[in-house]
Amino acid sequence: MSSSAPALVLVHGAWGGGWVWRRVVAPLREAGFEVHTVTLTGDGERAHLRRSDIDLHTHIADVMGLVEMEELENVVLVGHSYGGMVITGAAVELQQRHPGLLSGLVYVDAMFPRPGDGWGVSHSPEVAAARLAAAAENDNALPAPNAESGFALSPEDAAWLNRRHVPHPFGMYRQPLDYDAALIESVPRLFIDCTDPAYPTIEPVRRLVREEPGWQVVEIATGHFPMVTTPVELVARMRGFAETLPV
């Protein structure tokens, strides 16, 4: 990659931390990217900061703080799972506060909210009720699922996730993200669809990105954590997208 390669800001999903990207950070840097990982307030090594009133705007501020303090330019925001909510909000703020700084958005099997949508808007009533009940019993934090089931991980990788996952702040579950859709529509967007097995709560987004204009969609035949299971292919997909962006 040239010296004009984008600065990648990687944002994890629920229960995670910047650590989840460990297997892709070095290859991306070797390819010439500047790479930063964000750990959202209340997650990962910042779990000691968890409190019941953390919301989506707290996590958007985490990303904005990194971009501004590092004085990044030519930024591509990358979000996994719940992190798609965060990068959408951060993208809007970047467009409003620093026009021209944002070059692209990558959604790795991630949520994408239309204006006014919240994280749980597309979840079935059964899933929403179960998550709300579990969070209510844990000081408004959602306990992590057992990674051994539903994610097509090896026993070693499942154990790796289980050791590190922490309860995720839950104040944003039904918090709407209101924004001007035009601010997002003008930005190149890639959706990486992990299909084997497909994570059920992402299904509405899978349909949306194939129906609405302006999206590139690629598939990886793996589970919901491609940065763990197929890091080489994930890096290749991200590099391929970056090469399509205007310099």
Automatic annotation (TrEMBL):
SUPFAM superfamilies for this protein: alpha/beta-Hydrolases
A GO molecular function held by the record: hydrolase activity
Domain AB hydrolase-1: 8-236
Pfam name, any one: Abhydrolase_6
Keyword tags: Hydrolase
Gene3D superfamilies referenced in this protein's UniProt entry, alphabetically: alpha/beta hydrolase (3.40.50.1820)
Domain of life: Bacteria
Name of this chain's protein: Alpha/beta hydrolase
Species of provenance: Microbacterium schleiferi
